[in-house]
Design brief:
With about 190 residues, this protein is an all-alpha fold. It has 11 helices and 2 strands; from the N terminus they run αβααααααβαααα. A two-stranded parallel ribbon has the order 1-2. About 10% of the residues have low confidence.
Length: about 190
Amino acid sequence: MLERFTKPARQVVVGAREQARELGHHFVGTEHILLALLATEGPDPAVEALRESGVELATIRAEIGRMVGRGEPTDDDQDDFDPDALRAIGIDPDRVRAKLEATFGAGAMDWLRSRGRSTSRHGSRISMTRRAKKVLELSLREAVRMHYGYIDTPHVLLGLLREGRGIAVHALRNSGVNLTELRRRTLASLDQAA
């Protein structure tokens, strides 16, 4: 589905992972998608609709921090396992690493740990929540409904609003944003861009 996203919309998806990492969260939720939209640089129709509705990055970030809190900062060099916990159940991680490297070569453990996981560009595990995935699906539905052959940032914002139950929408409401008006402005931004 991401192949249908415009470059700015893809940057929002990537930016959401970065927003999550900066907040110390090990997941990408609707709130991170909203923060990534607001952090978009340069002229953007979705960002303009948000700003016209009185939405500011600092306000939303503070509200999300109040609602969700900050996680522990991710340590990009940290192992994915707790060596002390493994030792407590009779597994010696140093011996396991040595055996793997003796059999498969230096760095074998690192290679095995990196296989098949979703990571940020800094190596930290970050996966999307069910609601965040739903937002991307709804972005596609919004684009199809309006007969667009691509998904752009306003479609992502419309997907956030249509999902309606994620942290992003609660943060917007708690910040005094009229969601009906924001949707109207977002639709108008698409008309102006066409």
